[in-house]
Amino acid sequence: MNSAMALEITEHPAFSEDLYRCGVQSASNLDEHCVQVFLSLPADYPSFHAGQYIELVLADGQSRPYSIANFDPQGRTIELHIERNWSSSTTTAIIDQLQSQHTIGVKPAQGDVALRANPSSPLTPQVFLAAGSGFAQVKALLQHFFHQDQQHAGGSYGKAPVYLLWGTDTPAQRYLKVLVRSWLSRYQNLQYRPLNWQQGDSWEHGLATFIQDCKQAQFYLCGSPSRVYQTSDYLESQGIASSQIQSDVFAYAPRPVQSKSD
Predict the structure, then answer these.
(1) Which CATH number does the domain housing residue 50 bear?
(2) Residue of 118 and 259 predicted with greater confidence
(3) Tens digits of per-residue pLDDT, 163-179?
(4) Which InterPro entries match (predicted)?
(5) Cα 145 from chain centroid (whole Å)
(6) Residue 26 pairs with which residues in a beta bridge?
(7) What's residue 12's pLDDT?
(8) pLDDT at position 256
């Protein structure tokens, strides 16, 4: 879920049975646009997986959803990448609380996006598309994939082609370049394509160079609704089945159902 999306504020009561008080380990600036947050979870916090998102809840009930940015097999820590949105008082208040207080309210993880990398089909390509801080969700999914890669070391599982496309307005907004470079040096099956929106790049442009080799791939789209739907339409026009495409957008911003008369 892209942290910069303009989503409706969800009102919650001051106390809720499914609201957990989580510790703030750290909240530091990755750059001027994005804050990296690490939360420690209470022992009774429900399990979660890479690809899901959580809601951070303020004392007055206002909340915002943020994608989980890490894969943690023990389920004790959650990482977030919160993009600053100066026009959103709620986002500003959340960042202020994270950087000044020791705890914050957190709802259980939600979302159906999950890694579909099956050891029984080890050569299935995996394609990850991120826009801005949508990289958070992609990072968690890739960490899960690399973990499985290590679990099946020595077999063909780690030879599956993996593509990462990360688009931003400027190169400076790709805030974890060092991490991406470390992946590239370690995982020979990973290909990385940085995209610059202001130069006319798009996910479709990035995909066009290798889409013919990825007819059976799994696709993970992490960006705004307009970008996700435009790209999913492109993928389906290239023969990719809708069942091969995952995005949170399909759940929280579904397309209107057209009547037969339209």
Answers:
(1) 2.40.30.10
(2) 118
(3) 999 999 999 999 999 99
(4) FAD-bd_FR_type (IPR017927), FNR_nucleotide-bd (IPR039261), MRET (IPR050415), OxRdtase_FAD/NAD-bd (IPR001433), Riboflavin_synthase-like_b-brl (IPR017938)
(5) 14
(6) 38
(7) 43
(8) 80
Amino acid type, 236 = E
What does the alpha-carbon distance between residue 101 and residue 83 come to, in Å, rounded to a whole number? 19
Distances (CA, A) of 116 to 61, 141, 217: 35, 10, 10
User: Does 87 share its domain with 130?
Assistant: no
DSSP H/E element including 196 = strand 190-196
**pLDDT tens for each residue of 99-137:** 999 999 999 999 999 999 766 677 899 999 999 999 999
| Domain residue limits at 100 | 20-106
Residue 224: give its domain's CATH number: 3.40.50.80
Q: Is residue 9 included in any domain, yes or no?
A: no
Inform me whether the pLDDT recorded for 78 exceeds 70.
Answer: yes
Same domain for 135 and 81: no
Record the pTM: 0.89
Does residue 260 form part of some domain? no
Same domain, 189 and 89: no
